[in-house]
Amino acid sequence: MQTEIKAYSLEGITEVVLGLGQQRFRGDQLARWLYLYGASDYQEMTNLPQSLRAALQEKHPLYKTQVIDKKTSKDGTRKYVVEFKDGARVETVAIPTMGSPEGLAGPLKRLTVCFSTQVGCAMACAFCATGKEGFSRNLLPGEIVDQVLMVQKDFDARVGNLVAMGQGEPFLNYENTIAALRIMNSPQGLAIGARHITVSTCGIVTGIRRLSLEPEQFTLAVSLHSADQAVRDLLMPALAGDPLSRLKEALLEYVGRTNRRVTLEYAMVDGINDTPEAFAALVGFCSGLLCHVNLLPVNPIPLAGAAGDGSPSLSRPSPLPAIQRWQGQLEEAHIPATVRHSKGADIAGACGQLKNTL
Asked: Which of the listed CATH numbers 3.40.50.10490, 3.20.20.70, 3.30.565.10, 3.40.50.150 matches domain 66-347?
């Protein structure tokens, strides 16, 4: 039975070559070809014996991942539609920061990639286009890493920051996601520091607890969006009934084990989660928790909310002055907070807008 090579972790790649009667160092060579040099064919791997290349092709085929569409925003953000061997597609977003004070001109200063971990998403958050597409399948470790390699090739520049905040819930594909992060972190792969790699979750408690036990210092972001249970259940129905108290308990355990700060993502929706009551609930949730709140206006998507029947839209962003006022009030409450301005919205490349459309 064939198992494609991109299904394996770094340790798995070594086990593959050992199983083919080769020495351990051949696993390092193979991993470098795949994830340092981005080889798309075994015949490119000229320092591997021809017999090994033939055995790998027979038992562990190497399939090519390709970009089938690319759009560039006026702010420089690039969105890619990436297609895998079975025709499954995801979207990947590259966010360049340039050298000018505005970050829009001059030499490339920093390159961030927002990558996907699943084809589609099962979480069905009310303000997210991906969830409305449904869930198709998990991505393999190599399929996750391929997205970053493609961005590096397109920009001809090294990626410095990674965020698992594209399509999918990373903790519902935990093993493959962690295997991919380790490839990205490894000198055999992208050699990106663990603290520059962020995993963003809707709040899967089991995943948070597992991440706290991993040896690498990957950073954690949680899509909170409301600290009021009823409102959060409205915005994130897949988590309805999962108490916020349980989430906070897991986050306190995470901070206690890792001594690392958690980022709480909070997309502000006009009239829904930006009320005085919502602010008080957020302050209460942050109390005693080493955290940073990232405020951002929700990005509009089609068919989000029911504004036509008189109820507030779930994709109408809060006014910027209201968001800035929250930031100031959080700082006054000694809760670090920033306002994040989404990039790529004009190409449907901002948070919550990814749909795999050409």
From this structure: 3.20.20.70
